[in-house]
Specification:
three-stranded antiparallel beta sheet, single chain, mainly alpha, Serine Threonine Protein Phosphatase 5, Tetratricopeptide repeat, 20 helices
């Protein structure tokens, strides 16, 4: 069922119904269905591409695509057709997964107390509600309005049905209300059931199904609360939403920091994994504070070799200049410098490449396959921004400097807003968060990160808007 195409969902015959009934006739079947959703999150149109390392970071001007012949020059220039093509397949893939999630939720409610006990019901449905919110929010960030300008503008459908049918397009504020409702319900279910609350991520392979382990690879309770902080911060220009964002961020910091501490230098440079400094074992994603990541065993091939490998043709390679790298990291001790490496491109030019997702094998470790989705570090940045907006600059600097010091850079005491932006730039390369920071702020220009000597890129509010895919418009017509 979960491997079928979108088209197959529209042609459900009696045999498909029987297979579906069999799948959800056991607890293992429910977890199999849920695992299928997690596995498909690494699709190239989702977190192995369009939602993380490629489209949003190209738009955020991380990489030098200034040559007219570069594959991504039109996208980096915010040209309408390039934007449409870049996100077209993402829509169908995301809503296909949302439909799968809704199927699981529907069967959870039908089989509670028979197939599912209270614990499994709460965990499975809680994770599914969070996944539904996560995927809708990703679609909202692309296809929704700039909320500080027109929050009531048409955005996206919010799909809760188990049957594939056209759902109405809702306003941005209506989508936000449904997002928050799903997240609140998810947190309510996971608060009394998720083992992460008492035991943390539990990355011990016991040789069995590990249904309740590796919680950093599932939408666990803390990850859901972090997503709620991110969602509410997206409407953060309104004080009531900013207050909720701060509340959730502080609760995650207070309750989860002991389970999701910041990475040490030894972990970042591979020493903790091997006993000696070993570049082949560097934890370049700084995995320790990742609250939720998707797991892609082909990460090196799907991401690094597709976008960042220095042997790629120069018109396809995503890289930055030495000048851009030096501006990004004025302090050499910054742990995030392990995510970049000086290389020669196919033409022999000196470039700096993102090696965050380069293939590596480290026995007993998951970080070589993780693509971060939610981090503790974002909670500190959200808190800093909220405190600053309310005039509590002391707490704002405290939260910001906690992150800076954890990444082994010095504290700052001036230019709080600029320094928050700099941390977004350094912290989320390859993770697709910076562009949405700019959209949330409605930044009219964006810095050319790849080379600070270049002029800023003019975006304007219109640059942040994406048309619904033509296939979707066709259904509605």
């Amino acid at each position: 069922m979960l491997a079928s195409s979108c088209k197959a969902w529209l042609n459900v015959d009696s045999e498909d119904r029987i297979l579906e009934e069999r799948l959800f006739s056991s607890t293992d079947g429910f977890y199999t269905a849920l695992n299928g959703v997690y596995i498909d999150l690494v699709n190239a149109n989702l977190y192995s591409g369009t939602l993380a390392p490629s489209t949003p970071d190209i738009l955020a001007q991380y990489y030098d695509t200034s040559a007219d012949t570069h594959t991504y020059s039109s996208l980096a220039g915010f040209q309408g057709e390039a934007k449409r093509v870049a996100v077209n397949d993402m829509w169908s893939r995301a809503y296909f997964l949302i439909l799968n999630v809704n199927k699981i939720i529907g069967h959870c409610d039908e089989r509670k107390g028979t197939v599912l006990n209270e614990l499994d019901y709460s965990i499975i449905k809680g994770e599914c509600l969070a996944l539904r919110a996560l995927l809708h929010f990703e679609m909202l960030r692309y296809f929704g309005p700039v909320f500080s300008v027109s929050p009531g503008a048409d955005a996206i459908p919010y799909m809760t049905d188990t049957d594939p049918k056209v759902s109405p397009v809702l306003s941005g504020t209506a989508v936000m209300a449904r997002l928050n409702a799903d997240l609140e319900a998810s947190m309510g279910l996971l608060a009394g059931s998720d083992p992460v609350i008492a035991g943390g991520k539990n990355e011990v392979d016991n040789g069995g199904r590990n249904l309740y382990g590796f919680r950093n690879l599932r939408m666990n309770y803390f990850a859901v609360k972090a997503l709620a902080a991110r969602v509410n911060m997206y409407l953060g220009y309104l004080e009531n939403y900013r207050g909720k964002a701060l509340q959730y961020a502080e609760e995650v910091i207070s309750d989860a920091a002991r389970f999701f501490p910041f990475s040490t230098r030894e972990e970042a440079n591979g020493q903790a994994a091997t006993g000696n400094v070993n570049t082949a074992a560097e934890d370049r994603v700084l995995s320790s504070d990742i609250l939720f990541a998707v797991y892609n065993i082909r990460r090196g091939e799907d991401i690094y070799e597709k976008y960042f490998y220095n042997t790629l043709e120069s018109n396809r390679l995503l890289a930055i200049s030495e000048r851009g790298y030096s501006s990004m990291f004025p302090e050499e001790g910054d742990l995030r410098t392990f995510q970049w490496a000086r290389k020669r491109d196919a033409l022999g030019n000196d470039v700096v490449c993102l090696v965050k997702y380069e293939a590596m094998e480290v026995d007993g470790k998951n970080y070589p396959y993780m693509i971060p989705v939610l981090r503790m570090s974002e909670m500190y940045l959200i808190a800093a921004e909220c405190y600053n907006a309310s005039g509590d600059t002391d707490l704002a600097y405290r939260r910001l400097n906690t992150l800076r010091n954890a990444r082994q850079t010095s504290s700052v005491s001036t230019a709080i807003e600029a320094n928050i932006e700099y941390e977004y730039i350094r912290e989320f390369a390859g993770e697709g968060q910076l562009f949405w920071y700019y959209k949330r702020k409605n930044a009219q220009t964006i810095t050319a990160i790849y080379d600070r000597s270049k002029p800023d890129i003019t975006v304007g509010t219109a640059g942040y808007l994406f048309d619904l895919p033509q296939s979707e418009d066709g259904f509605r017509d």
